[in-house]
Design a protein that fits this description.
Length: about 500
Amino acid sequence: MQDHHRQPLLLNRGEEAKAEQETAYDSDEKVIIGIDAGYDSEYTPPFSWRKLWLFTGPGFLMSIAFLDPGNLEGDLQAGAIAGYSLLWLLLWATAMGLLVQLLAARLGVATGRHLAELCREEYPSWARMVLWVMAELALIGADIQEVIGSAIAIKILSNGVLPLWSGVVITACDCFIFLFLENYGVRKLEAVFAVLIATMALSFAWMFGDAKPSGKELLLGILVPKLSSKTIQQAVGVVGCIIMPHNIFLHSALVQSRDVDHTKKGRVAEALRYYSIESTIALMVSFIINLFVTTVFAKGFYGTELANSIGLVNAGRYLQEKYGGGLFPILYIWGIGLLAAGQSSTITGTYAGQFIMGGFLNLRLKKWLRALITRSFAIVPTMIVALVFDTSEDTLDVLNEWLNVLQSIQIPFALIPLLCLVSKEQIMGTFKIGTVLKMISWLVACLVIVINGYLLVDFFSNEAKGVIFITGICIFTGAYVAFIVYLVSRGINFSSWCCPPKHAEGIE
């Protein structure tokens, strides 16, 4: 049997060709884990708290996408309109997101390449360019929401002195903060994100303490599934905003920040173990933070006339009116938490943009130039948005709906390539996913795609006006479905599902 661990990517690729390609991290940038002397390549070293600490970081950076302003808006609307009834769905949506992110980490660790690089290798030029454009559009849509969220927070904390457009300008400078931090190494950058996550946790926990939601209703909301026709739209939003296309690309690259010997099965298995633990912990923290936000708005606004009109723009004002000032006004607590969410997510967006552009196009640009180009893609349209919608909350909500639709459209173009690649033995070796995990993963993928498909159909059915518009939507839908079918058909060997060769059976 051929050894599938001698090279971290496709078999028969020369080291010289690999050296000419763009990589996520240079060798001198990676965190050194250390080597356990005396163990052969097949042996997985025993668990070590010290090593868990050294591997901790990528999962928390990944978890930022579960805490961005778009997710916070989905949380507050779910709480205000559905009360505590969708907390169970938030839990299971986070679990589905964890599964997808663990597969992304598995791909990056086992191959030594990230998703964008592998897509460049696996697909023909035309398909690769479509995937790149879709990934960039998803990133731009997410970044606009994140930058606007930061700008709203800055406006709140400045008592309205700084308008939305000035907050966008301030937030745009975060790419320079990112570049500055990156010069001090991966661990320093991860420490800054840890502080931002802690700031969010403290802020929203403070709000939770002020609001004092019902513990009994909270537990029932988590343990007892409930769904009604009145809350279906919020339910779709809860699931839809958990899977972020750019985050899949990001996590598959972040895990390469550790120095793992990909030629040794034991080292790869060890890295996967620690990344699985730290990613699970990170998403448990993100779930608790999202829980805080949902329950605060459930306690304060569920069943009230204001429930259907709450969004990011006016949420702080409504909180202030409901809970008053106190020792520290809840308006500013909300603003601090929202600012931490916006700033952290925009910086990780810049990070993801670097990997996406470099991976798909194989660009070996200097990091500052690549970050500047990536940031410009989102800042220019965001500035236009801020100038046009600064005084119109209703129009900003409509824009947010369009951005959610934009990102929903992109989900299959990250999720399907990921699942196809982690199922291939020639890519993953013995770390390919096994039949059971493959079925579960595709079931989750189909569920997420169908839920987002419902969102798209519902949105466009309300927006469809005129024969030309409807015709355009039909043509786009046909091309969209055809490309998804192409991605699936190219990546799956259906006969291997029922009768996989014994030597190719992956780890479940």
